[in-house]
Amino acid sequence: MADKREILNVGGMSCEMCAKSVARALKTLDGVHHVKVELDDDLVEVDYDESKVELAALKKAVEEAGYDIV
Ligand SMILES: [Cu+2]
After folding, report:
1. How do residues 6-15 score in pLDDT, each as one tens digit?
2. From ligand 1's centre to the CA of 11, what distance in Å?
3. 17 CA to middle of ligand 1, Å?
4. How far apart (Å, rounded) are the C-alpha atoms in residues 53 and 42?
5. Residues 18-52: pLDDT tens digits?
6. Which CATH number fits domain 4-69: 3.30.70.100, 3.40.50.720, 3.90.1720.10, 3.40.50.2300?
């Protein structure tokens, strides 16, 4: 089954470490296959399997890592 691609607008990422933290938080979720952070644009691209993980869980992981879903 094809992955779903979601672009999250994430606030609070100010440097490469932040980008890594967000990417790591998302990648630990089962069903997340690809994460790409566009630091300059505050965007995080996530490819995931909808049957394994919900969008709400992606957002929660970002928030629990200490960043905001805008
Ligand atoms: Cu940082």
Report:
1. 999 999 999 9
2. 11
3. 4
4. 22
5. 999 999 999 999 999 999 999 999 999 999 999 99
6. 3.30.70.100
